[in-house]
Amino acid sequence: MTTPLRLGIAGLGTVGVGVVRIVQTHADMLAARTGRAISISAVSARTRDKDRGVDLSAYAWEDDPVALAKREDVDLFVELMGGSDGPAKAATEAALAAGKPVVTANKAMLAIHGQALAELAESTGAALRFEAAVAGGIPCIKALTEGLAANEITRVSGVMNGTCNYILTRMEASGKPYDEIFAEADALGFLEADPTLDVGGIDAGHKLALLSAIAFGTQVDFEGVQLQGIQEVSIDDIHRARDMGYRIKLLGEARRTEAGVEQSMRPTLVPADSPLGQLEGGTNMVVIEGDSVGQIVLRGAGAGEGPTASAVMGDVADIARGLDIPPFGQPAATLAPAQRANSATECAHYLRLSLTDTPGALARVATVLGQNGISIDRMRQYDHPGEDAPVLIVTHPCAPSALATALEGVTATGVVTADPIALQIQTP
Length: 428
Ligand SMILES: NC(=O)C1=CN([C@@H]2O[C@H](COP(=O)(O)OP(=O)(O)OC[C@H]3O[C@@H](n4cnc5c(N)ncnc54)[C@H](OP(=O)(O)O)[C@@H]3O)[C@@H](O)[C@H]2O)C=CC1
Ligand SMILES: N[C@@H](CCO)C(=O)O
Fold this sequence. Notes:
- Keywords: Amino-acid biosynthesis, Methionine biosynthesis, NADP, Oxidoreductase, Threonine biosynthesis.
- Pathway: Amino-acid biosynthesis; L-methionine biosynthesis via de novo pathway; L-homoserine from L-aspartate: step 3/3; Amino-acid biosynthesis; L-threonine biosynthesis; L-threonine from L-aspartate: step 3/5.
- The chain is of the alpha/beta class.
- The chain has three domains: 5-133, 3-Layer(aba) Sandwich (Rossmann fold), CATH 3.40.50; 140-302, Dihydrodipicolinate Reductase, domain 2, CATH 3.30.360; 349-425, 2-Layer Sandwich (Alpha-Beta Plaits), CATH 3.30.70.260.
- It is 36% helix and 24% strand.
- It has 14 helices and 16 strands.
- The protein has helices at 14-25, 27-34, 65-70, 86-97, 107-124, 140-147, 162-174, 178-187, 196-199, 202-216, 235-243, 305-321, 361-371, 400-412, and strands at residues 5-10, 38-44, 60-61, 76-79, 102-104, 128-129, 153-159, 225-227, 246-257, 260-271, 283-290, 294-301, 349-356, 376-381, 388-395, 421-425.
- The strands form two sheets. Strands 7, 8, 9, 10, 11, 12, 13, 14, 15 and 16 form a ten-stranded mixed sheet that branches. Strands 3-2-1-4-5-6 form a six-stranded parallel sheet, with helices on both faces.
- The chain is elongated and about 80 Å long.
- The termini are far apart.
- The mean pLDDT is 96.
- Bound molecules: NADPH dihydro-nicotinamide-adenine-dinucleotide phosphate and L-homoserine.
């Protein structure tokens, strides 16, 4: 057996502790599988004397993660602190600059600095791996870069934020409104320190941008992801979608078209009996479509200590084996800048409108939709105690840009009493 692979782990929170536990529990198995012993030399976190439920006494301590990354006895730097910049980026750059491989779960850092970090890694010959950054325990990056390497990928989609899926499925199961279930998720510790990252679709957008770059061979382009969060999804939307045979999911989709790469992360109605529709709680699902393989579906835990640490250690094991794959699946210099394209794919839409309950209001809305080429498939006005009439419209498939123009016109009629809510209905 060769010399041990010595880890330096920065960040001893949920994921960091999980990684320590796996190294301590499965040392023999990992050595047998990789042909190399994997050990921990040193660790770092903000607070040294915190009881983390694992024995850290055998490891050196560094207050400064950059110093940890540079230590002589650290062969591989494991970044599990989080944050797109600050110490996570500084320490990752220090390790890569020194030619040391880095494994990280930090989607925020990679979605913004992925190209620069990949270029740095390749310039020094260091590996940079981030399986845990996308969909926690699901090995979707490995699937794309290895198992599906011979496929032209046409579409990557899925549910990539467990917290949003928990909130949406709990709303449906309990019949409680968004605010109440958001508070419940907060009390259970599910939300990121900045909850907008979850409910605003940003965290899932980071993950989609990473998958999209790998799938289509482009530079990672988080700014190109069209984002819509789940904050405006009401319990009424969920009930009405269910009555029509749909469930609402925060669905990410990246596809390559002739116009460029479309990336979107938004609440979407999906058939209730489809694999996505049946996804409960914090589970994630990634759907990949390739020209030879067709469609494959990967489902599993998208977060949590065990699943995320499992993905981190999968990367560590690959490095121990000497596997050398560029961070985004092909050399960074060959990744083309992403050519952004707004979604032009026609799909049906669910519209929630609130109208003044006056003669002709509904007719004016229907007229504006018609003038913009939007055809109504279904329409219903609900009982209402007050002056505002809640109206649900389902359109026939139409281009999102045509609908956006139409909704501007609908708002300009003066008969709507709140901003219209438009949700896409998934195209097969
Ligand atoms: N939790 C999850 O399920 C998943 C997390 N991830 C990603 O994994 C990474 C870690 O997440 P998670 O474990 O949940 O985060 P936690 O908040 O649980 O832990 C963060 C750790 O980093 C340490 N830390 C923070 N800032 C510094 C600093 N300036 N210097 C040294 N140490 C620092 C903290 O120290 P201290 O403990 O002393 O405060 C803590 O140990 C993030 O990038 C996250 O996005 C990815 C997928 C799933
Ligand atoms: N906040 C993320 C954690 C895992 O990336 C989620 O809810 O999925």
